């Protein structure tokens, strides 16, 4: 038997929340990633921390506590992290950063950071000596080139690279600390779809999976309004990679941080610029870039919730 892989979860859980910046419901994908790790016998969760992102830090923290209480018997430590991006001129700590530091002092572990990487960035600024204790940070961000748009549905909507966009500096800090980085970007998650048929199958499973299916329906409805037939469960590619890396196809790339025109504002006459996390043949920082799944991936994904 292989020893279990130790994984710290850092998440901007927003399952079932109303968006705080514009109308509509929030992403449900963190819920799939957290529940998949909770259910896996390959993984030992070493702690769960919340970060702002898809929703406010208070909502994300409340949902971390709720999932831990309702679906894991409260057995994990749950910690509140950053409510905003790193301010380099005023670096703060928080409960999540201190708890993660204490855990890393005891043992090496992987970190699944499926929101903005703010808590990991803060940790590396305050405790640079702990960089060598981080076996890998698995993140949901990046693309090959600035013209690889994140297209949602067929109405022309383009999504941001939200986890990166909300805290560019956190990524730069991780790269400069030379922490091993694995990226599960839009390129891979755009190949995986969850449909109403999948939710109906999840309705027949355990209460945690039933809850996730039920809370996913308003989110699925928004994707159908955008002309899609399902939704891409972005963050679950990160959790699945940690559980079963052989199901995920990756290649080594070199990441760079570059500034180009904002691709989400193409029709806006007052177009602005933004930072991009680009993963090319040439670049500055080595990353493992996950870009495809095995042919029977959809079935394998749903089996992990059985
Ligand atoms: Ca997330």
From TrEMBL:
Q: Which Gene3D superfamilies match?
A: Ribonucleoside hydrolase-like
Q: Name one GO cellular component term.
A: cytosol
Transmembrane residue ranges:
none
- Entry's Pfam families? IU_nuc_hydro
What molecular functions are annotated in GO for this chain? purine nucleosidase activity
The answer to keyword Flavoprotein applying to this record is no
Q: What GO terms describe the biological role, i.e. biological process, of this protein?
A: purine nucleoside catabolic process
Q: Which UniProt keywords apply?
A: Glycosidase, Hydrolase
Q: Does the keyword Hydrolase apply?
A: yes
Q: Which SUPFAM superfamilies match?
A: Nucleoside hydrolase
- Ranges for domain Inosine/uridine-preferring nucleoside hydrolase come to 24-261
Superkingdom as given in the UniProt entry: Bacteria
Q: Which residues does UniProt assign to the signal peptide?
A: none
Record-linked PANTHER family? INOSINE-URIDINE PREFERRING NUCLEOSIDE HYDROLASE, URIDINE NUCLEOSIDASE
Name of the protein this chain belongs to: Pyrimidine-specific ribonucleoside hydrolase
Q: What is the lineage of its organism?
A: Bacteria, Pseudomonadati, Bacteroidota, Cytophagia, Cytophagales
């Amino acid at each position: 038997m292989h020893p279990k892989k130790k994984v710290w979860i850092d998440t901007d859980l927003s399952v079932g929340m109303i968006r705080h910046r514009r109308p509509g419901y929030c992403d449900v994908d963190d819920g799939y990633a957290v529940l998949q790790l909770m259910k896996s016998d390959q993984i030992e969760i070493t702690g769960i921390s919340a970060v702002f992102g898809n929703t406010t830090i208070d909502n994300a923290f409340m949902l971390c506590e709720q999932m831990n209480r309702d679906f894991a018997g409260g057995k994990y430590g749950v910690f509140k992290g950053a409510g905003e991006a790193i301010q380099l001129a005023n670096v703060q700590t928080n409960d999540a950063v201190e708890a993660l530091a204490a855990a890393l002092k005891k043992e090496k572990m992987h970190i699944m950071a499926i929101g903005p990487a703010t808590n990991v960035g803060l940790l590396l600024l305050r405790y640079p000596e702990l960089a060598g204790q981080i076996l890998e940070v698995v993140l949901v961000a990046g693309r090959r080139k600035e013209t690889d748009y994140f297209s949602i549905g067929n109405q022309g909507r383009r999504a941001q690279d939200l986890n990166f966009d909300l805290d560019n500096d956190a990524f730069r800090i991780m790269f400069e600390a030379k922490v091993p980085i694995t990226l599960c970007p839009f390129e891979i998650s755009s190949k995986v779809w969850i449909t109403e048929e999948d939710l109906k199958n999840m309705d027949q499973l355990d209460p945690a999976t039933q809850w996730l299916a039920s809370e996913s329906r308003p989110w699925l409805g928004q994707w159908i309004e955008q002309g899609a037939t399902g939704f891409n469960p972005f963050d679950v590619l990160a959790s699945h990679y940690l559980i079963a890396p052989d199901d995920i196809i990756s290649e080594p790339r070199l990441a760079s941080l570059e500034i180009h025109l904002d691709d989400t504002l193409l029709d806006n006459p007052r177009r602005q610029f933004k930072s991009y996390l680009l993963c090319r043949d040439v670049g500055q920082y080595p990353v493992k870039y996950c870009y495809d799944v095995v042919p029977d991936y959809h079935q394998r994904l749903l089996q992990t919730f059985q």
